[in-house]
Amino acid sequence: GNSVTQMEGPVTLSEEAFLTINCTYTATGYPSLFWYVQYPGEGLQLLLKATKADDKGSNKGFEATYRKETTSFHLEKGSVQVSDSAVYFCALKLGITQGGSEKLVFGKGTKLTVNP
Amino acid sequence: GAGVSQSPRYKVAKRGQDVALRCDPISGHVSLFWYQQALGQGPEFLTYFQNEAQLDKSGLPSDRFFAERPEGSVSTLKIQRTQQEDSAVYLCASSWAWGTEQFFGPGTRLTVL
Question: Which residue in A34, B26, B33, B76 is a FRET match for A16, CA 20 to 30 A apart?
Fold first, then answer.
């Protein structure tokens, strides 16, 4: 079946540190890949996405590259801020044209805390 | 509306009670999704509507779970005879068409005692 595995947390960093959160996937076709973020007390928000191999998604200084050869979509940021403290979810979707549906398949989430 | 809204935000039920959770999608959004998020886990898909048609209900865990969207707008997720394992946050998301970004609501936290 289709699944997402992401690095277990929690992750604690100091401000301006480099961030990597690993994400790998298993899918029967060619999924679209996403990172969602959940800030404290708020709903899930789309952070970035990539729809095909070698695409790079980027937003708010975060980036992730769709690597088909390693089935990975690792999230990176060069210099984290306190305001980046949140839970990050990696997800995939096999759309209707892939014989799937519109449902998102999520990883378990990684909690990031950034200290000043 | 400004975003997806859900009500109630918190619900406590005694085991065996029936509950109904409401989702108001963004106005004009055709697609609507329900997800269940257990504590410390990622959201898991329950069901999906395109307008009033329920196109995928493969994630509903049992026949105690039922969802409807009769007029293609507001949706209700009903859980009959609640069990402790139903305790979770229930998330609703909507998108303006298939293949487009899903926008999530704040969720309803259900606690079954």
Answer: A34
